[in-house]
Please model this.
Amino acid sequence: MNLLSNHSHVALSLLLAWTFKTTLVLALTWIVTVAFRFHSAATRHAVWTAGIVSSLFLPVLTLLLPTWRSPHIGNVVEQWIAPHSMLAILEPPTLSAMSVDALAGASPLSNSRLVVLLAWTAGMCLLAVKLAAGLAHLVSKSATCKALLGDDWKSYVSELSRKFELTRPVRLLVCEDSRPMPLTWGIVRPRILLPADAVDWTDERKRIVISHELAHIRRHDWLWQICAELLRTLFWFHPLVWVAAAKLRHESERACDDCVLNSGIAACDYANQLLDLARTLGNSRPGWATALAVARPSSLERRLVAMLNPSINRRRLSRATRRTVAVLTICLLVPLAAMRLPAQSLAGAFAGSVYDASDTGVRNATIIMHNQSSNTTEMTTTDAAGKFTFKSLPAGEYQLRIMKRGFEEYRAPQVVLEPGRESSLNVTLKIGSVMEEVDVVPEGTVKPLPESQNGGKPVRLRLGGDVQAPKLVTKIQPLYPATAKTAGVQGTVILHAVIGLDGRPLSLRVMNKDVDPDLARASVEAVSQWRYRSTLLNGEPIEVDTTVKVNFTLAP
Model:
């Protein structure tokens, strides 16, 4: 169950990031098409096509491109979008301290993620079945249709194909049913399906219908419309995707209308023929929805208004415009696909506890997580019980540092956070070592230091992780050995000792073996007489390491 929860978290985070990016792309596409309202329908159709195809290819490019993170967009997502959308379900709950790595079992939040993912999948499957059924209907109906072999039809197709610079072979098919609207489908071997009574059409209607359908074929409109249907299947819940699919279909019909009018057919004659087709063939079945119909009633009124307006721009899409749209699309798509959002590839919560040597939680310790690949750093502090939690970190490899005054810094060079996997770590900090340094010149002195204002009595604190550092209260200045002075010997003696519970240096030993023996002896004799105030951890005396450097130098 835990593995299923992890997989659902990863899948849902990727889908939500894809949704957010698709929303940005389609919203920008809509804004551009509104700004291009005085341009031709072919130009607006190209913009909608670029937006829809870009949205479909976003996850593919995300896998191929290197990661790029935008802190500014990430802050927008975290502060505004995430709390008001499904992104909020990705944030794990606050966790208690755990032993190692993963939590067992699924939380209610994990179950909610799974429910959302199942609902998303169910809607997607429903529309996928509907789309597949529509395509299957086209294939089956086309298989039962007869080829239209009339010389007049062939001459129209041949003449208009040359006019539209169309090189692909086109098949004309006649259905046994007289109700279907003339429509086009197919990519490599496109087909034009006509109703049974098409054999009795006038020459004018034949020419108009063939011109319109060949315009669809030349512009590859059926392929782009199928891309829109696929995007709508994936994001069945997204209203902007439905708007994009409808806008794409409408602009494709408008662009083909412009092609027909530019071929020399009068706007009034064209409008009359479309009205007559819509009136006599308007009861087409839903199974034809995946094809491009010549006179779909839902958009016919707006098309008639446009075709009867002589001031509308009806220019074809030029190569320069097509290249400009392609370049601008790539410039937008590449950085957007490479960008990782806070909701994308998130790890589960990373939590733990920080203890001292007495197994008491260390409060106000600073926890630092540094992601070396993205060069980002996240920080938090422990609470009164020594517990900490990072709720939403991107998956990856981190360097962990834990710092608290009086303790040695803890470093973990590699902490791996996996997507959707909740992990934990418990750390025991070591008491920080003491460092003393003294300079010795030939004139030695004995200089006791005054005791603290509280008479040398330690103040016992009961706060977890509180360290009262040792304080040197009596310091005996080492004497410069006469033999070393006469011989002109100088040097530094490094001593290691353990400050005992009573403040006395224990286990004194010389760390650097190459030092002069007389200097070492003088150092040990003096430091052994030093006295410290006891080191306290949570009010209790403890032993602590210390290092003393004694510098012997001769006066110039």
Observations:
- The domain at 434-552 is CATH 3.30.2420.10 (TolA/TonB C-terminal domain).
- The mean pLDDT is 79.
